[in-house]
From TrEMBL:
InterPro entries in UniProt: B12-dep_deHydtase_bsu (IPR010254), Dehydtase/Dehydtase_re (IPR003208)
Protein name in UniProt: Glycerol dehydratase reactivase beta/small subunit family protein
Amino acid sequence: MNKRDIYMTILYNSTLPSDQIQEVCAGLEEEEVPFLLQERDKAGSFIELGWEAASMSPLQVGIGIDQNGDVCVHHQKLKREEPYLQDSLPNGRKLGKNAARLIKGLPLSF
C-alpha cells in the first residue's frame, strides 16, 4: 500500500460551506493524520455520512458532517446507528483530534 493510500475520509453535506469544517481538519492535522474531504449532495444524517466515510476509508474510521453542523466519528466495525463519538462543529477540532487518536491507538483528549 502506498503512503498516499492511507487517509481518513470526511464526508460533509454540500450545503455546508467548506470553511466551516476547517476546525475538524485542523484537529487531524495536529495529529498528523491525512484525510480526504468529500462533499455529498444527498440529504443524510451525520451518522449515515460518518458510517459511509468509515466504510470508504482505508483506516476504517470516518467523519460525517450534516447540513446542521452535527458531526460524528464512526468506525467501520461499529453498528451503523452507533457512532464512536458525536458532537457539533464548535467542537470540531476536538473531534478531529480524537478521530486521529482513535486511529493511532492513543487516549482520547477531553
